[in-house]
Each structure stands twice: as structure tokens, then as C-alpha cells.
């Protein structure tokens, strides 16, 4: 298998319910439009000069392997609020960047604050200058069915 450095990326987030926690996770992926592909989990370094997309490319083949950084949480505890967030930091000159993920029993704002702090620290320890910060998140309060919150950065080789 040959891996190609991704050229484009998109940030997505969704929350959903399902008959089981795994079905809730799958339903959140379907809401994002990535439920019929294989997510290949990555660590959190963004290639230089990546282009950020506003919408998913059309006609992504079923079963395609997509490099992904994602955070997720599932719960079946009624009344619990769960959130997932991804923070993306882009360096000056778009020479690369970092993605940090967080998921927990919390409100969306808490998850977003957490990833912002992580991105800032990641840049500081590398001696990089943060030019831009982006965040994507999802929140849901569990009712009668299990629920999931998922946030993802999907990368494309084309």
C-alpha cells in the first residue's frame, strides 16, 4: 500500500442517537457523510499547505480508506451531556499544523476550551507561531436512547 501526503482536509462534527452506543456512533458518522468509508486514525500533525474544504467531495467511494483525526464519546446514561471537539492550529506561512482532540461528559464550550489550550501548548513546545485556530464540536444530551458525539478532520489525497 502506498500512502500519499494529504492535500485537502475538512472539519466535521455531529451528534446522534441509536439503538446501541455503536449505532449512535455510526449514525453520527452518517450525519457527517462519512458513514460508508473506513476511517484510518491518525495522530495530529497537519501537512504543510493543506487546502481546507467547506464541503465533502462528491462520490467518495464506499469503503475508501480516509486518514482521519477524530474524537468521540458515547453514552447511555439519560440526562448526561456529552461533547467531542477538535482544535486545529495552523502555523504562520501554512507550513504545517496540529490537531488536538477531546471528548467528555461536558458542554461543547468546555470541550472547545480544552482543545484550544492543547493547540496553544503544542505550538509553544515546538516553537511554532500560531496563525489561525479552528474548532469543530458536537454536543448531545442523552435521552431514552444511547447517544454519541463525534468531531473529525478528514484528509484527502486529491
Structure in words:
The protein has 158 residues and is of the alpha+beta class. It has a single domain, classed as Pyruvoyl-Dependent Histidine Decarboxylase, Chain B (3-Layer(bba) Sandwich), CATH 3.50.20.10. It has two helices and nine strands. It has a five-stranded mixed β-sheet with strand order 2-5-9-1-4. The longest helix has 19 residues. It is flat and about 50 Å long. The model has no long low-confidence stretch (mean pLDDT 95). It holds the Pfam family PvlArgDC.
Element layout with pairings:
Layout: E1 8-17, H1 21-32, E2 38-41, E3 45-46, E4 51-52, E5 65-75, E6 81-91, E7 97-104, H2 108-126, E8 130-141, E9 147-156
Parallel strand pairs: 1-4, 2-5
Antiparallel strand pairs: 1-9, 3-7, 5-9, 6-7, 6-8
Shape: flat
| Overall number of structural domains | 1
Helix content: 10-25%
Number of strands: 9
Query: Please, what is the CATH homologous superfamily?
Result: Pyruvoyl-Dependent Histidine Decarboxylase, subunit B
Please, what is the average pLDDT?
A: 95
Describe the biggest sheet?
5 strands, mixed
Sheet with most strands: strand arrangement = 2-5-9-1-4
- Give the amount of beta strand, in percent: 35-45%
Our measurement of the CA-to-CA distance between the termini, rounded to an integer number of angstroms, reads: 16 Å
CATH class equals Alpha Beta
Structural class: alpha+beta
Please tally the helical runs, counting DSSP H or I stretches of 4 or more residues. Answer: 2
